[in-house]
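Hey team,

Filing this mostly as a record. A colleague (T.K.) asked me to run one chain through the structure pipeline before their review meeting, and I want the input and output archived in the tracker in case anyone asks later how it was produced. No errors, nothing strange. Just documentation.

Input sequence:
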Amino acid sequence: MKLKAALLICLGISLQAYAQDWNYYKPIQSEGIIPSDFTEAYTNKYEREREHIGADVKGKDRKRQDNFHLRSEYFVDELLMGGDVIFGDTISDYCNRILDHLLKDDPGLRHKLRIYVVKSPDVNAYATGNGIIFINLGLIAQVENEAQLAYVIAHEVIHYKNEHVLNQYIEEEKIKDGEDLYRKSNRAEQVHALSTYSKSQELEADADGFRLFFKNSGYTHRAPVYVMDVLQYSYLPFDEIPFDSTFLSTEGMKLPSSYLLKNTAPITAEADYDDSESSHPNIKTRKLEILKRLNPKDTGVAYLISKHIFDHCQRLARYEISRLYLISGRYGQAIYHTFLLEQKYGTDRYQKLTVAKALNAATVYRNNGVLYKMITEWKEVEGESQQVFHIFDEFDREDLNTLTVAYTYEAYKNYPNDIAFKKLFNKSFHELVFENDLKPNDYKSAPQDTIKHDLFSLLDSADLPSGGRRSSKISNIQRKKKEQETMELSEEDYYKTAFTPYWSDSLFMTTFEDAVDEYNNTSYRDRKGYKSRRKRKKYDVNYSLGIDSIVIISPDYAKLDERQKDGIKYLTTAEKLDEYKAELMDISDDINLNSQMLDYKNIESSDVDVFNDLSLMKNWIDERLMHENVDALVSDFDYMDPIGKKYGTNYISYTGNLSLRVRERNVAGKIIYSVFLFPVLPFTVADLLIPDYESFNYFFLFDISNGKALLAEYNYYKTNDSKDYLRSILYNHLIQVKAKAK
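Output structure:
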């Protein structure tokens, strides 16, 4: 009894730990102490890894291993600091518990490995040379059970254990340099050789992962075979359910049947595809290799840790993917994915909010004539989700704008005190009126027509004196007219009845009339200005913003050299980045600008809240930059208010610098030219001796309360990134922020 009580207590703690209000879903965040992978300097990581190169490794191979660690640590560091990797959360902990179980008999290997989750909808997992296994949320969202996830993890463990990433790099270098067996190979032969080598590593990871860690784990042996089916169809959403058009319909606006495909495109993925130039063997080959090793008396199970936790983690992943689709502007995917969430988990506020955000953003892009950039061409989509992309293709501006207003308003009515829905509703009306010049009179049964319409309806339905019935001729004419009007409306202007249910709704009408009044009171030039401001790519005048406090988000820096094989000067980049950040803070102090720098590369291990804030702000900035020329709301707008309050300012800055050493071009031509024109020879020699550079600096200042770009400075300069020159550029940026208008 005591054991049973203890288990119930533990289960209660587990349920409490994984509790989630799905109506008010919050982005997945990291928890606990920040691992050293995130806080340790890149140069330290590189130096430690190069020390592990064996003393017996000589010559080119030693140089190649050194270059591998130089490159690998840099790119892993960039991924860790990109805002999409999380640690200590429910999903990461769950994956690490699976890893604990798989490696329970090899504690030494387990100590070298750690798993982090990547906020990406792509179905993928990958291991690094330094012992990190990254697992995308897309994989969590699509695997069918814990056993399948465990096999993927076992597969990735082998990639690390057998040093596949390092060996792949060395083999690539040998192929490029034409060494050994590749000495006389052409380009096609090199591609084939690299593909063959990569496939052999994948089959090795499949076989050894099963044999060493999965076979005796207690998981069902069917999982490795079935997970191959998941990978085969991974490019599709997590389920295949016919899209119900009523999902987007409103009380007064039903999608015409002509907008719907009679049949969606068949799914074409095959298990036995041509993999001759692929990095992975085809699915059929991998299945056959696994089937050779299965125990026909398999007694394993699908869950050893917890089905409850698996289901919770999968739901978390799927809800987060809705957000990721919005951030990346994949609005068709966001809507179908959210439709699947409703079918699987029932309706909730978060789903309604996701669809309202997707429709609002799509409306803005449609009004700007560039929706094609965000919505995949429907003919390129397979499966049931194709229906959504086809509907978007059928929408014209009035259709989409009107549907967005109606859908958002009905969601807002269900959550009348919800600030997010209110903001989306107001935005949708602004787009409707300012971008389409649509007013109440442009819709059927508008308020001013209601009394007249009602009187005629009353007259037509009233009992007439004896013998006063309308003739069949008049009745038939009127009936046919109504049928014709209905037919014309459904085929051409069906959206015009969308607002009929709301004409007596004071909130709806007040919002509509306020938008119209604002439009009428706005000059023609300002209306045009509203549209043209979206297209401005550069704020090339000096501003005096009079701002006293800003937050600077993880500055970027890249030092490049076109003459080098890799192109990136990794160690110099790290040094220059430190100098760049120091200059930003020094100049801020000089001009009395209160600048708080939130930087992934300079964060205490206990500052997990700052780490999470950085991730939110980085996602916000990435999406805002995507909306460069359109006035779409940044989808995470409802998460930004606490950020502004926490740091005492709504102004966040994102800046960086890129400097490229350019390869000297047409050297022979310049020398020959100077020989014939001897007086220019000294100038030619000087030109050849002085390095050429192409550099680029950017500085953005955003107001996260409304998404406005207050500064968007781009500076191209054909000089080296000298400290003095960069300081002058940064001073100009920051003084515009601080200076008050005269």
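Quick notes for T.K.: DSSP finds 28 helices and ten strands in the chain. The radius of gyration is 31 Å.
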